[in-house]
Design goal:
The protein is built from 19 helices and 13 strands. It is mostly helical and about 550 residues long. The chain folds into two domains: about 300 residues, no CATH class; about 80 residues, TolA/TonB C-terminal domain (2-Layer Sandwich), CATH 3.30.2420. A three-stranded mixed beta sheet has the order 2-4-3, with helices on both faces. It has a three-stranded antiparallel beta sheet with strand order 6-11-12, with no helix packed on it. The protein is elongated and about 125 Å long. The two termini are about 40 Å apart.
């Protein structure tokens, strides 16, 4: 699956999981205060915002996604890509080899970025409008105002709002002088409640999440619910300050009828679409109107992190074998094209193909990073190569043949830089992995023949009559990889070989090359008292570039 398509799908279901958990929590806490529910929505939206960062930093925990969840036409697109054939010359130009069918991942990414840019632009335009209003308006002096909060006189008929993060400003319409003292009091109490609750910060947080996830319906739901609970929480503070419920509801209703304009970019006092439910909540004397305790806030944050971490670590993996094979084959083809570019010393193109391979199929990430390290090493960019080798080892499973090969290449590069201590440490780790792999290979191979004799004493060793040199694999030659394969063999009474086992392996297919070569060797059999006998022996096959 293309990386952008995978990212889009992962972002969708991860955000759904987090906000779905928040929705369940809000339903469970429906009898609690509005401030409590607003806290839940705020924490969940913050989790959605930092989700991409956590997904990048945390190690992958892969989960299957069935092919039915893929966008329509994806399988056709993938099959078309695999069927596309290109000449070596085309592969080395750096041009994309996969051009058949639409790139759905790029379409998704383009639409996502355009929508986010439009939404963020709308948000900035709203802020600019409020900032212009701040510059054009004059301070308003009213009695019983918190001296730390600036109040300005806005256009007559506009909705009261609170604007600003660090030094909030309250805008009151010019015709507020015509209000009763009680109405001015409750309006100011409501806006001061927003200042006290830091609603400017939570409003900005929710608005950024909405801009980035504009396509997600549950984010829109969280946005609307966050606004609703925020206003109800401010109402609760007003009522807790001594305002009468029926009088306060009446003031809100009159303001909603009279105020015609609402500046964008800041929390407005009244949203008409939510007014009826809000008035019902104000008039309900049985409502819980207490702010959540600090312990609840801490507990909510910890629970959110406990949900966020495993969700962020999960990576999508298509569970349909055919589609998974197509994705793996596509990445393998990209790596092969990168190796062709590397052999032609077209390093920039090689890096391009290796980078595409690791994003197209995360399962190929370690191999692609290894080849990128080799490419950087060829250009004497040792610091970059060092980081890539370490990155490849961090994503590769430990004690695997691939991890050992990467470690051996890394150790060779360190020796090239005369970093003997570091090279020895890495080489010893690789040797330990090779020993484990050799033991596993012997344990799973055919058991030794019962009639084997041990060499020594009266048993005369076999004599090598003819030897076939092993071939170097192309990948090993390209990587300038060298080492020795240790084989355990059985030489029978007629000099033939059987039960050839790899007891110290190498990478890049050199084990098989060693087995193929040794299988063609000719021996004069070992003897005991002049009679041919079957014996076991060890053979070391060296691979060294001339």
């Amino acid at each position: 699956m293309p990386a952008t398509t995978t990212f889009f799908l992962e972002a969708a279901w991860k955000a759904t999981a987090l906000l779905g958990a928040a929705w369940v929590a809000v339903l469970f806490l429906r009898k609690k205060s509005a401030a409590t529910r607003h806290q839940i929505w705020t924490v969940s939206l913050a989790a959605v915002l930092i989700l991409p960062l956590f997904s990048t930093l945390l190690p992958a925990l892969r989960v299957p996604i069935r092919s039915s969840l893929l966008p329509d036409g994806f399988l056709f697109h993938a099959q078309s890509r695999m069927a596309d054939q290109h000449s070596p010359a085309q592969r080395l130009t750096g041009a994309s080899p996969f051009t058949s069918g639409p790139d759905l991942g790029r379409i998704f990414a383009t639409l996502w970025v355009l929508g986010a840019a439009l939404s963020l632009a709308q948000m900035f335009i709203g802020w600019a409008a409020v900032e212009r209003m701040r510059r054009k308006t004059k301070p308003l002096t009213l009695p019983d105002i918190d001296a730390s909060v600036e109040v300005r006189e806005a256009q007559a008929g506009s909705m009261p709002i609170t604007y600003g993060l660090f030094r909030p400003i309250i805008f009151i319409p010019a015709d507020a002088n015509e209000w009763t003292a009680e109405r001015r009091r409750v309006v100011l109490l409501h806006e001061l409640a927003h200042v006290h609750r830091k609603d400017g910060v939570t409003h900005l947080l929710a608005r950024i999440v909405l801009a980035l996830y504009w396509w997600h319906p549950l984010v829109w739901t969280a946005w609307r619910e966050s606004i609703k609970e925020r206003e109800r929480a401010a109402d609760d503070l007003v009522l807790n300050a001594g305002a009468g419920a029926s009088e306060y509801a009446g003031h809100l209703l009159d303001i909603a009828r009279a105020m015609q304009t609402t500046p964008a970019g800041a929390p407005a006092m009244v949203h008409r679409s939510q007014l009826s439910d809000r008035l019902a909540a104000i008039l309900d004397s049985n409502r819980d109107r207490q702010a959540p305790r600090r312990t609840f806030v801490v507990a909510a944050a910890l629970i959110t992190v406990a949900i966020l971490v495993p969700v962020a670590a999960m990576r999508a993996r298509n569970s349909a074998p055919q589609a998974a094979t197509l994705s793996s084959d596509a990445a393998a083809d990209l790596i092969n094209q990168g190796k062709l570019a590397l052999s032609a010393k077209n390093y920039e193109t090689a890096i391009h193909f290796f980078e595409r391979a690791q994003t197209d199929d995360p399962e190929k990430s370690a191999e692609a990073k290894m080849w990128m390290a080799i490419t950087q090493q060829r250009q004497n960019n040792f610091e970059t190569a060092d980081a890539l080798y370490q990155s490849a080892l961090s994503v590769e499973l430990p004690n695997t043949p691939s991890a050992a090969t990467i470690s051996e290449l890394y150790a060779a590069m360190l020796r090239e830089q005369n970093k003997e201590e570091d090279a020895t440490k890495v080489a010893n780790q690789a040797a330990g992995m090779r020993k484990i792999q050799g033991e596993q290979a012997v344990a799973t191979s055919a058991p030794p023949s019962p009639d084997l004799h041990r060499m020594g004493g009266d048993v005369q060793p076999p004599k090598l009559l003819s030897k076939v040199e092993p071939e170097y694999s192309e990948d090993a030659r390209l990587a300038k990889y060298s080492g020795s394969v240790l084989l355990s063999i059985e030489i029978l009474e007629d000099g033939s070989l059987q039960n050839i086992k790899v007891t110290r392996p190498l990478g890049f297919g050199l084990d098989q090359k060693a087995v193929e070569a040794v299988a063609k060797w000719k021996f004069e059999p070992a003897t005991l008292n002049g009679q041919p006998v079957a014996v076991s022996a060890q053979v070391e096959v060296n691979f060294r570039l001339q």
